[in-house]
Amino acid sequence: MTAPPFALPTVRVVVASAVARAGFTSLLSAAVFAISEGAEVWIVDDSALADLSVLDDAPAVVAVGSVAWANLLPDLLEGGWAALDSGATPAELVAGVLGAAAGLVVLPPTQVPPAIHDDELNFDDLDVSLTPREREVLALLSEGLSNKRAAKTLGVSESTVKFHAQAIYSKLGVQSRAAAVSRGIQLGLVSV
């Protein structure tokens, strides 16, 4: 198998069952993800989530099991997350890992809220004027870059990127990276 044209996130498997842990590790290794304790994305199950302090150091999480955890994850994590049901396919697991690593939210199709149509949005009420630097940061966020990578690309500190991201969230009336990108696309501030 050839290496992908981009760096894949590292993954840590934090599940109670040794059999499930071995299965996840095998599947993710076959998909060329590196398994590491200091990983960028954690795979957790319902039993691991019974003690929410487990997630204190998790940068991004893929919760496999009950999608009821989807309501808690936004409050626990700053980064991306995925909530997949226990019947998730290997492709859905891989998509969850990649989406969470990119700072996005990944849900099973049955959990995705109905789409908002452009005719339901009142763009005239939105006074959105991003600075040129905020537009650059939003564009990099939409490409899935982490704050650290965006900072390196722009030649600024990670704190500066976080500052601009918070300003973007405020101006767009959102609370997460995924919502900012989505709103930016809706408003024509970001092209995909």
Give your account of this protein's structure.
It comes from Deinococcus cavernae. Keywords: DNA-binding, Signal, Transcription, Transcription regulation. Residues 1-22 form the signal peptide. GO terms for molecular function: DNA binding. InterPro entries: Sig_transdc_resp-reg_C-effctor (IPR016032), Tscrpt_reg_LuxR_C (IPR000792), WH-like_DNA-bd_sf (IPR036388). This protein is an alpha/beta fold. It folds into 2 domains: 11-111, Response regulator (Rossmann fold, 3-Layer(aba) Sandwich); 118-186, Winged helix-like DNA-binding domain superfamily/Winged helix DNA-binding domain (Arc Repressor Mutant, subunit A). Helices cover 40% and strands 11% of the residues. The chain is built from 8 helices and 5 strands, in the order βαβαβαβαβαααα. The protein has helices spanning 18-30, 46-49, 73-76, 90-101, 132-142, 147-154, 158-172, 177-186; strands at 11-14, 41-45, 61-65, 81-85, 105-106. It has a 5-stranded parallel beta sheet with strand order 1-2-3-4-5. The radius of gyration is 17 Å and the shape is elongated. The two termini are 29 Å apart.
**Major sheet: arrangement of strands:** 1-2-3-4-5
β-strand amount: 5-15%
Number of domains: 2
What is the 3D form? elongated
Task: Detail the topology: elements first, then pairings.
Layout: E1 11-14, H1 18-30, E2 41-45, H2 46-49, E3 61-65, H3 73-76, E4 81-85, H4 90-101, E5 105-106, H5 132-142, H6 147-154, H7 158-172, H8 177-186
Parallel strand pairs: 1-2, 2-3, 3-4, 4-5
Helix pairs in contact: 5-7, 5-8, 6-7, 7-8
